[in-house]
Amino acid sequence: MAANRRSSSLLPFLLASALPLFHSVPVFADIPWIVESPDPTVMGGADCSLVLDDQEVPHIAYYDAASGDLRYAVKAGVVWAIEDVDTLGNVGAGVTLRLDGNGNPHMMYLDRTDQTTWEWQIKYATRSGSPWSVEIAYSPGHTITEPEFVLDSSGRPHFVCGDIPGPYNRYGYKLGGSWFVEHVADSVSYTRGVDYSLALDGMNRPHITYTESYSPSDLKLATKSDGAWSIETIATEGGRSVLVLDEAGSPRVAYYYYHLYYATQSGGAWSSELVDDLMYSGTKISLALDSQDRPHIAYADSWGYWFDYAYKVGDVWSIERSDDLESPGRNVSLVLDAMDNPHIGYSDGVSLAYAKTDIWAGVASVVQSRGAPSVWPSLTRGGPVWISMPDEFGQMLDVTVFDTAGREVKMLAESEGASPRGRGWNLTGMRGEYVAPGVYFLSVCTEKGSSVGKVILVR
């Protein structure tokens, strides 16, 4: 496609001649984050864990640091139903919430009631009907770290934690009516680490990320298969991490080492990329993969100054910093709904908060056309966009951006991020200046055809 198409009469020609015809994309409203306070009585900050049920109703388990109680909130219409889960002592720190196949809640958390000899316990609470059933999952007689907890395909609980001193990595699970806890150990020695994350694959085998608690502080992945643990290095320097397995069972890891990084594995080799180069970004992290295995990360800094949301499309990361979200004081919990919209539970340092943004609200119609370019996100508040075409159209030759008057804004260069079938746009014009808010058309030329997409920029 020629680079000199600048006349205002060009746009109707593009829309009429594109093969296939112009693709009608969603029209979005400028919707900010909607933030609620599920439990205004929480005054001491809160560890929290958020999940959505099959009806996309939010459920939050949270620890009230002021009262030392574990509570559970479920949104019922426009109000939140609040109940106590465990109030015996100082209970609930590091809580993780999961729902089983029947929608029943399961929680695992730390009991730190003993502040004299520091003999802490890991507790497990579940409910099928009423009341709550609470039991001790692990009580080693000394200090332990907060657990990370998941349910397997049969609804059985699995967890990872650390024994202190060490801390030595421990993996536990419930089978029948008994709990079993073992060291995470290779053929040489027990492993020691901090900042755990746990995921189970399709065969219910555990995968655990942790950072070694001694020099060097390598970020490691431990996997158990056929009764034996194998240990590999993800990165030579690491910190807090979150592990998620994609649809193929491959590990994806978001982690912090003075900045926020994202690591993937291909052919047995690990590679890491920088997500956010701001110092101390990523001290609190939550990672989720959407329906196309694209990563979404909610994270914050160690100073409590900002709360960011990053997502990747193609080779381009988009980072949104919203004034609607207060920086989380303790932790952040991210989940995506069926439309890949984010929902976040967090503490703003004082109280419990729940936030969501519905990027599909206000859509009048969506017309899908074979061969039309995929533009994601179709609405952006300042982050880059990624343009791609179906495989059958072959390699992408060029992409030119036009405004609604048909004036050429920019021909996208490969330096902005590209693959054979995709191209990124960083929302700048020919001179590198950021473009004004408005509607922009993306004229795509490939080896076997052409088409036009649309993106809306709001500020």
TrEMBL record:
<keyword id="KW-0732">Signal</keyword>
<feature type="signal peptide">
    <location>
        <begin position="1"/>
        <end position="29"/>
    </location>
</feature>
<protein>
    <recommendedName>
        <fullName>FlgD Ig-like domain-containing protein</fullName>
    </recommendedName>
</protein>
